[in-house]
């Protein structure tokens, strides 16, 4: 079992993009990080890349397809037995990630960010029915800080690198939320570091 003073984090969909950048920043900050990926080969390759930056010693791999309940149970058991606690969960896995060039998927992925940012600027997030699952979870678990974030238009494979914000900048916004104090806001939707009406 792990030491109580150590800090532990899990990042989902972390073999590339925003997730991998978040893993790097958490590991640099002293966390022991579980880098999860749905594909074991892609996950282990990501860990290999981290060894070049000297961070691999703080990162462990665990397979996780977020859409697979048995995978989720297995990860929960791993955390329980190996660490006995979890300080931060960054649920980053993007189900829209496209590995095959598909014009319609690309347009849908890009368009989903742009209409969201437009609704945010116009103050119509709530009336347009953007998901409120975060608020439901936050109410159910008042001892946790549970928030979600639109990090901006980040340059990753999700948008075929058409984004205008570097991945490190996006990851820094994620970490800002992850490091909220125990009495900080919960159940909110942040857009780039700003809280919305939600
Ligand atoms: N980039 C942006 O502009 C932007 C804007 C708003 C929100 N976001 C959100 O940011 C998150 C990260 O996206 P990204 O831009 O870094 O995209 P990305 O580079 O395409 O990465 C997506 C990651 O999610 C993983 N993934 C997809 N389905 C999964 C599943 N069922 N289980 C586990 N992992 C899964 C992918 O794994 P594989 O490699 O195996 O496919 C990949 O590691 C997503 O939730 C996305 O919606 C991004």
From TrEMBL:
KW NADP (keyword) present: yes
GO cellular component: membrane
GO MF annotations in UniProt: oxidoreductase activity
Swiss-Prot/TrEMBL keywords: NADP, Oxidoreductase
Family: Belongs to the short-chain dehydrogenases/reductases (SDR) family.
Record's protein name: (+)-neomenthol dehydrogenase-like
